[in-house]
Specification:
By secondary structure, the protein is of the alpha/beta class. The chain folds into two domains: 189 residues, 3-Layer(aba) Sandwich (D-Maltodextrin-Binding Protein, domain 2), CATH 3.40.190; 149 residues, Periplasmic binding protein-like II (D-Maltodextrin-Binding Protein, domain 2). It is 39% helix and 14% strand. The chain is built from 18 helices and eleven strands. Strands 1, 2, 3, 6, 7, 8, 9, 10 and 11 form a nine-stranded mixed beta sheet that branches. Strands 4-5 form a two-stranded antiparallel sheet. β1, α2 and β2 form a beta-alpha-beta unit. α9 crosses α10 and α17 runs antiparallel to α18. It is globular. It comes from Kribbella sandramycini. It holds the Pfam family SBP_bac_1. This is Multiple sugar transport system substrate-binding protein. Keywords: Cell membrane, Lipoprotein, Membrane, Palmitate, Signal, Sugar transport, Transport.
Length: 427
């Protein structure tokens, strides 16, 4: 169930805010027969239940669709029509949010444009009693102007998993700095194995973590450009070095979000999300370790990008109150379903701290270590980061990592784009 990437190096689930990450669109066919997802019986009046359309993108893990349908069927107060969307969910959703024939409830990542365009409604009333049970980052990424617009469904940390036996044989300890990572990837590369897999694009997914590990950010808390410092530029130069050393696996059958490369022994290390832990453990057993993206330098701090999906209520819904009631029931009240969704179809961290603390599958091994790393080093998206900003930042990464362009010059170009977007948003 990979989540969107940290504002760069977009993967199959970075559908909305940047390419959203962090949308544009086609007509939809309801997953449940010909149901349009709109209210039946005159909007639920006269004693009949409302029908709510709940939209999901297509998850990769077996059983996820069946789980979503199970939750929907169990809800007593409305008919829930689950729309399960393969392919370009982002474009379909962007179109649907402009129409009264779109979803009532949907998953996404928050973009400030959704708020400014009145596409989503605030959910402060349904989260108020449990707000302290959510991590600050999971609240911040769904908050605009002090109002919470979404309820986090899953948390998807992205880290580096590694083959213990390969590092041990080479006498290499898990890297603690970016220099260590570059050196380890080079030393672990042989004629049969590459040191690391970070995506078939050469490593764009590492751009956000590299900036954070150097003490920067994509946007500051007060919505200023946060990635243009000299230390961030130096961090990108090191990603370039790792690519130039030919330590990076390219041309893998699947991309970085799939554990095939590390499972098949093609690499010693792989950047990937916690969702892949069950598959890696099945293939590798105890020969699996994990570390955060290492600090860029002595003054930096390790980084864990904490992605995920969030549930929203469409402002175009004809049954906003009923939709909010359903979201509260499923993603706040039903602890059993929340744990099931996070941990029985790949591994993810339940956003509710109380649920995560009791989840048995997170209490040992690399899963427990990943949770610990996320708690200590995790960061998530600023909802003010727009698709245009994401494209500009991705261009920086492509030009620096693959083409050897000067990071400072590339940052300067991206800064102009980001400042233009900030001016548009905030004046």
């Amino acid at each position: 169930m990979p989540a969107h990437v940290p504002n760069a190096g977009l993967n199959r689930r970075d559908l909305l805010k940047r390419a959203g990450g962090l949308a544009a669109l086609a007509a939809f066919t309801a997953a449940c027969g010909g149901n349009t997802g709109r209210p039946s019986g005159g909007g639920g009046g006269g004693g009949s239940k409302a029908t709510l359309a709940q939209w999901y993108h297509q998850y990769g893990e077996t059983g996820t669709k069946e789980a979503a349908l199970k939750y929907a069927k169990a809800y007593p107060d409305a008919n829930i029509a689950v729309e399960w969307t393969p392919g370009d969910y982002g474009s379909k959703l962007a179109s649907g949010l402009l129409s009264s024939k779109g979803p009532d409830v949907f998953e996404s990542q928050l973009n400030i444009g959704m708020v400014k365009s009145n596409q989503v409604v605030a959910l402060d009333d349904i989260i108020a009693d449990v707000k302290d049970d959510f991590a600050p980052g999971d609240l911040a990424t769904n908050t605009v102007d002090g109002k919470v617009y979404g309820i986090r469904m899953i948390v998807d940390p992205q880290v580096i998993y590694y083959r213990k036996s390969m590092l041990d044989k080479a006498g290499i300890k898990p890297p603690e700095t970016l220099d260590d990572l570059v050196a380890a990837a080079k030393e672990l590369t042989t004629d049969k194995v590459k040191g690391i897999f970070v995506g078939n694009d050469g490593g764009n997914a590492l751009g956000g973590p590299a900036v954070f590990a150097s003490g920067g950010s994509l946007l500051t808390e007060d919505n200023k450009v946060g990635f243009t410092g000299a230390r961030s530029a130096q961090a990108l130069s090191k990603l370039r070095q790792m690519y130039a050393d030919k330590s990076v696996l390219l041309g893998a059958p699947t991309d970085w979000w799939d554990p095939g490369a590390i499972n098949q022994g093609l690499v010693a290390m792989q950047w990937i999300g916690m969702w892949a832990v069950p598959g890696m453990q099945k293939a590798l057993g105890d020969d699996l370790g994990v570390f955060a993206f290492p600090k860029a330098d002595a003054e930096g701090k390790a980084a864990v990008y904490s992605g995920g999906w969030t549930q929203f209520v469409s402002a175009k819904s004809a049954n906003v109150d009923a939709a909010k009631k359903f979201v509260k029931w499923l993603w706040i009240d039903q602890a059993e379903y929340q744990e099931d969704w996070s941990l029985n179809y790949g591994f993810h961290i339940p956003p509710r701290k109380s649920i995560a603390a009791k989840a048995s599958k997170l209490q040992s091994g690399v899963a427990a270590e990943t949770v610990k790393l996320t708690t200590e080093f995790g960061y998530t998206d600023n909802p003010a980061w727009t698709p245009k900003m994401g494209t500009a930042f991705t261009d920086v990464l492509t030009n620096v990592i693959k083409k050897g362009a000067d990071p400072a010059a590339e940052f300067s170009k991206a800064e102009k784009t980001v400042n233009g977007e900030l001016a548009r948003l905030f004046g």
